[in-house]
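Risk register update: the risk of archive-format incompatibility is retired. Evidence:
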Amino acid sequence: MDLGGYWQENKRFVLTVGAGALLFLVGFAVETSVYGGDLVSTQREITGLTTKLGSARFSAADLAAAEQENATLRSAVERLAAAARFQPRPEFVPDPAAGSPGNHYLRTLARVREELMQRANRAGLDVDSALGMPELSPTSEVQIVRYLEALDLVESVADLAIRGRVARIDKIQVRLDPGYASREGVGTIERTRVVMSLSGTSLALTRLLAWTQRPGAGGRVFSIDELEMGKARGRPGEVRLDVTFTIARLKPVEAEG
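Archived output:
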């Protein structure tokens, strides 16, 4: 090869490549002198952390302690769930041996309505005879069970209203958990709400509220979600109580297999 001829024809290209190589070497030398120590230190730190992660192990004692703590927490959750769960009286729980849940619902509603209305009339307590139950009887077993629980609560509160000399139960409305009508379904806590409006003296209504929160012979406390009390319009000396009771159901804690 004729180097002289090549140089004459390509000296600009050769000079450009040489200048680029020289700049690269200079830049590399500067980067190494400035950041070389940090890069080496960072690489060592990464290597050390990787080694620690690879060697980290839990002992059998650690596993046993974690399992014991998990069992304790599950037991505590079960106790709290049982305390919050509404416990219906036996006559409000469908018995498969006694017929269909639908027939049990109709029989129980008829009995409660007859007995409660008679007692309310004798005590001078005005009560809506519908007792918050739907016009059309529920057909699914899930809804029947929920409405029976609500009927149990309604009768219990009405009984307290009679004993406390409340003047009127103006409204009773039972609302099943809205999760039944949604795609998401019922959540971890299912809530059946019983909305009631009552009128009477402040003493009578205060006494009623106190009794719902103090375990009586049945040992039951009725959970209150909302509460508002004020003067009754057009009735001097009376107050109005709007209260929402909640019947809660908590999903059981699932054991991990």
